[in-house]
Amino acid sequence: MANIDGVIEEWMASELERRPVAATGLGIGGYDGQLGDFSARDFERQEVEDRRWAARLDSLIDPGVAPDAQIDTTLLLSELAGSAVMQDWQSWRRDPSVYLDACTHGLHLLFLHRLRPEAELVAAAVSRLGQVPGVVAAARANLDPSIASRLLVERGCRAARAAAAYFRDHLPGSVADQGLQADLASSAEGAAEALDALASHLDSLSRIARGDWRLGESRYNALLHHRELLGYGASELHARGLVAWDALDAEMADLAARVDPGGGGWRAVIAALSAVHPGSPEQMRTAYESACEDARSFLVQRGLVTLPDGERCLVIPSPVFQRPLLAVASYSQPPAFSSSRTGMFYVPYPPEGTTPEQLEQRLSDNGTHAIPTIAVHEAYPGHHWQLTWANATTRPVRKMISTPYFVEGWALYAEKMMRDQGFFADPRQELCHLDARIFRAARVVVDTALHTGEMTVVEAVTFMSTKASLTEAVARAEVERYCAWPTQAPSYLTGSLEIERMQDRWRKEGRGDLRQFHDAVAAAPGMPLALTERAVFGP
Known about the structure:
about 5% strand, mainly alpha, globular, 2 domains
């Protein structure tokens, strides 16, 4: 066991050197002044290194190894297997987000949780800002229009412009001291100029980009099997999404008829409910804050989970650089290797340049009756509770590797569980809860169809705006996200169904009450679902 633990520790150290921005997000010091190496040579070197790590771990697999070490080893092997599946895809030659995410998150994360004195944070930020032109130069050298898709390049162009605006207009305000502000502003200008130049380059690149974003069924299946450790591929996943959609459609039709007998079906009723929404982004933020407080109180009253000491969820506007790319609420967890238990619920503020009509759409997608479900998903007992609770794990590698099939699956499971426990007392809220779930079923259908070539982007936008109650603008943003992030969109419903199955097993085996189940599963903390089940129930 000591040998396996030692190899895993070696991998973690090498991974932190390679991904210093991830180290900042995890709350691990010593890396905050670096963005990382984005040269083609380093990407190619890492492919070789990943194969070497996999071979070393394979040689250590033995039935006599302690259960926790076996789980850790399988977890790391699944991560390396996912990397191996994607090696020939070469995202670093296809997708500008590989470079832009490091630049934006590398600066944003420094000031998000403020784990160090401001002067140290600013020094690290100035260092990283000075490296942005180098990252931009690597992006320009590496991105290849023969394999890069126009859709992802255009998405990157928007992100580059938003990042430049964030550096110029918002980053210096992250600190109060005027001298430190001046240091940030001076360094940020050079980084912003580099990003402006990258945006212009990407605009030109998009006109000649002729690659594809579709992953293909074989590669999609391999990710599900080897990285997610699921026993089924894209075809079965697609079929499961259709079955779930049909069942939810029927249930929603019945409930909508009770909410409004003359409403003309659940889509029309949901549309009418969406018209009741906060009047401004700040009113939306306040409504989410109140809903989070209500959900937390409900958990305490019902004894459904154990709340970690000192946990706190701040409900704040989404970061400026994120707004053009993500049209829905999101969450940022406290650093896993820190003592912080403060998370950030990001309210989906509209991007700069939003028209009054687009603002109305954004607000209607966050309607008054839908807000409780989203608060449950993002905060209590969804992402915020689960991720703050999981920070107590004593297995370090489990803090570094996670999958949305657990993390997002848990959050959708939390929605259903809260409905079962009676949190959505108003039938209009309950209908909006089901609308959120059928949205996730539609995601399963669309993501699998997009990446296996069964559906075009236009068809996917139409599907999401008719089979789920999204406005066309939000549906378009969603579909572009699926194109850029294959296999992630099905994780919500897939994970929820697996956790529901585990809950049924827990009950049948008489292992304890619901609170004990939640505490055990959520502590996993975000591993592939097969490993979660092994950790909770044993081999």
